[in-house]
Amino acid sequence: MRVDGKGLVHRDQSVSFKFDGQTYKGLAGDTLASALMANGVRLIGRSFKYHRPRGIMSDGPQDPNGLVELHRGDQITPNVRMTQQEIHAGIDARSQNHWGNLTWDVLELNDLMAPFLGAGFYYKTFMWPKAFWEKLYEPIIRRAAGLGSLSMAHNSDDYEKAFAFCDVLVIGSGPAGIMAALTAARSGADVILCEEDFRFGGRLNFESYDIDGQPGAAWAAARVEELSEMENVRLMRRTTVTGAYDGGTYAALERVAQHVSDPKGAPLETFWRIVAKGAVYAAGAMERPIAFRNNDRPGIMMASAIRGYLNRYGVAPGKRITLFGNNDDAFRSALDLQAAGLEVAAYIDSRPDAEIKGDFPIYKGARITGARGRMRVDGVTLRTAQDQEVWLTTDCVGMSGGWNPTVHLTCHMNGRPQWNEQLVAFIPTPGSVPGMEVAGAAGGTFSTKGCLKSGIFRAKTVLDAIGISAKTTPAPEAEDSATKISPLWVVPGKGRAWIDFQNDVTAKDVALAAQENFKSVEHMKRYTTQGMAPDQGKNSNINALAVLADVTGRSIPETGTTTYRPPYTPVSIAAMGAYAQGHGFAPQRLTTSHVASVKAGAPMIEAGLWYRPSYFPKAGEVTWRQSCDREVEMVRNHVGVCDVSTLGKIDIQGPDAGAFLDFVYINTFSTLKVGRVRYGVMLREDGHVMDDGTTARLGEHHFVMTTTTAAAGQVMRHLEFVHQCLCPDMDVRFISTTEQWAQFAVAGPKSRDLLNGLLDAPIDNDSFPFMGCGDVSVGEITARLFRISFSGEHAYEIAVPSRYGAALFDALCTAAKEQGGGPYGMEALNVLRIEKGFITHAEIHGRVTAFDIGMERMISGKKDCIGKTAAQRPGLLGDTREQLVGLKPAGAVKKMNAGAFLFSPNDEPTRTAQQGYSTSVGFSPTRGMLALGFLRNGRARHGETLKLVDHLRDLETLVEVCDPVFLDPEGTRARG
Amino acid sequence: MVELVARTPCEGLLPYEAGEAELSEIIPKRITSLAPFEDSTLLKPLKTALGVELPAPGQSVKAKDGRIVWTGQNQFFVLDAEVPALDAAVTDQSDAWAMVALGGAAAIDVMARICPLDCAHMTASQVARSLIGHMPAIIIRTKTGFEIMVFRAFAKTLVNEVSHVMDAVAARGALST
């Protein structure tokens, strides 16, 4: 029901929306909660465990019951808080957590079973038989559990992430926040003011306070107007600061387009990381309920929410309202209702000495002992100070057990709040978050005047700390009443009194936890699930620990709180992971031949961030093996072209370049002649192989190192480390030139013929012998030519500046075609190198030494190098090592797998019996299945027959151990 | 003789405009990396040719026919200008980088979503090595916006990611509040 003349809603702007399929009308400025309340809708959801009917309880984001599902299809968003969600014409909200419809929920049966379903029920009941848990109990419980649903499809909504920076971050825009922001802004600081609501002003919008003779909401609007006109101020509404982290970093979630029907490409939410030199935390306080029998019935709300809906939205939550509190603040709801002409059925205060007066029934020293009604409260029983039972008819009850300062963010860096006897509340411990000051109700200052003053004072403290001189701002005039409260947590009596409304935890459950010796507050929480629902105990934590303290005979500060962790309110994973959907997960590095390769139908595979062609299918080829076999034969008999630009290239220059390379490689490079290339292996400091590749000498003081694709970054980092930390005196410089050059392997007996058809001047075996390098000219462009081979064939690698890469790849492919060749992909490249026994990171995987791969003789005795001494350690040499071998099928099964283990044929294939493993497998069109692997003392065991077992893919086969070089061991083909 | 056609890193991808932000490709005449050896007197020919000293860390300077940009410890990129014969580690990087200009009134809002730095407080000619999305980048503040350099192979991702953010910023601007 709307109340005339009240509220900050736009009376002239009607908005229609849907809830559970039915269309309603609300006003602009309404939330889903207020609009439904105005329409007389009380039942808005079902509780989590017992499926009890529930209504709206509070007017803030902490509401435990008002969760709905929005949107359809892959955009479904569950658990949207009705107390926060603005209505708009596109809203089609659905209530959650019922089987059948909201009014006739089948699972309300659980409520009748309540005596059997108390805390710990699952732990005790579903133990036997053991196998039933996974197969029967868990799936059934899981079906019944969970709040809301997901589409299980990829979410097509847009989300966003962003960074912001400021001098002073002000969290909350109530009286304290506004004064803090004004003080900081008028002093010239860069200010960000974050407000969770869509309207700045905090509690002032929900209260009837005057400030400087103006209604509080109007005063707030005027101050925010002033702030909005200042260039050094950034106002962020609909933005919840959700966490405080190291270095003045705060996380915040902005609801960007949840309030419009069509975002038109705008993100739904933005996840902000705000870096602030200082912060004022003015997050206010939250009222806590009182536990009495059936205190969860729809229509029973927080006392402050009752006046909140009236003042903010002009909605009366009931016609005959009862209020029940233990503090002076609760009484203000009665006064606001009366001033608006609404009927107050009674004001019930648990304090016999409460100083309150009003012309409606007032019961001092009395308590509500129970509520009646199922779908809606219709009456309460109360016990008076004279111990008489009184029955009251009422359709709405407001309860107030006092206020909890919102201490959450102050605890995010391990701070613990302190108990304050006078306020009956936990308040933040000063200095809990470096650089953050707490102002207003969040710090336990509850009067309006106190909040205004506290905002100014805390802002000054922050400004001082960051070296900005604060300009004096006077505090406006406002009420300054003291906090008067006497503790009341639970009204004793039979029946269930709710503590955690969202997870259905009652006062009895907390007592049961203590009885079963879960006496620590952290144990009680886990035993009862109290505080583990989406509201994270905002309504229940303090009440639960007070009950626990009572039943265990400890004080509240002794009992302590559970740990407040970020996020303060739920944050969509989609917002935190914004931009990372699909290809956004990792950037793509595309070679200059990418477009041509894709056009040729090559499936692209990922190599780190790079994309490389797997194979180039030709018409009629149905399987990848057909293409791969053809490409292998093409290289062996004619010529093939392959983009090898992804290999790391590091330009190394300086007078000490040769000496530097001698130190990082196991073999010597300082003696390499200009115009020559040498294969090198480098070790980590622990003596294991890090990477291998070729390095060419382009000039006296100028080398170009190539690394594997996978280790390009690691090698660059390693070189920097060695130079900066181990030999800073060496005059040497290096820089990556990977991206500068598009480099292509041209491999096969006809490779020179192909090149000579393209180069401006032909080459021969004298000008470019095996392992030679130098500049050539192609299309009048200077190119680098290296005669190196990863296939064992007569081969070259030609590099041109990347701008010409695409053109050169086309020209090479066209020329190859004329020679009976063409492009080849990674599959063929792999088979070609396995045939030759060349290693990749499948072999040098981080646990092998130069000895293991048969290269220990490459470690020069004439010089030191990284890893040299460590490589000589006991256990890294000798016949106990697993050494590189070749493997060939020896039995009926011709299949082999990489990653399978080697055993003696008669041994059981168990962990302790394993003697080695396979690393790479390929099918050679001429030699059949071939594999490389490591075998204990393998070099001495060529000719042995072993069992290869792949436990994961169910393969068991006999293999013969052989030399890892299957083809042309003398290397005559490459030199031809 | 074969004729090799040159392609720019962002060919066919730019320019792009959305709301109050523009993204366009910059094609420097050349990019030359420069790492001085220990003997700094060897750099004299550079000063003679370009008329300026090397910039301080985090800075770039205007030079004759171009700019010198600090790009890391003891490392500089000379943009556009030709580097004279020099006893220093000099490499051609002209083809290694995709370079774009992000301009318009919304450029700062776009940067706030793709770069973790406080870009709004960078001053003209300031340089930073940071990230654009997940890509290592060189970021230069100019009078009108930002210049961004990433590895050439990232060009497509750069354009996709920045233009996506530009669209979102424009759409947010157009939202009724």
UniProtKB/TrEMBL annotation, chain A:
Designated name of the protein: Sarcosine oxidase subunit alpha
This protein's UniProt keywords: Oxidoreductase
A Pfam family reported for this protein in Swiss-Prot or TrEMBL: SO_alpha_A3
Entry similarity comment: Belongs to the GcvT family.
Domain GCVT N-terminal: 596-863
Coiled-coil parts of chain: none
GO BP, sorted A to Z: tetrahydrofolate metabolic process
A molecular function (GO) term: sarcosine oxidase activity
Annotated SUPFAM superfamilies: Aminomethyltransferase beta-barrel domain (SSF101790), FAD/NAD(P)-binding domain (SSF51905), Folate-binding domain (SSF103025)
Top-level taxon of the source organism: Bacteria
Annotated ranges, domain SoxA A3: 494-578
NCBIfam families: soxA
Automatic annotation (TrEMBL), chain B:
Annotated SUPFAM superfamilies: Folate-binding domain
The organism's place on the tree of life at top rank: Bacteria
Full protein name: Uncharacterized protein
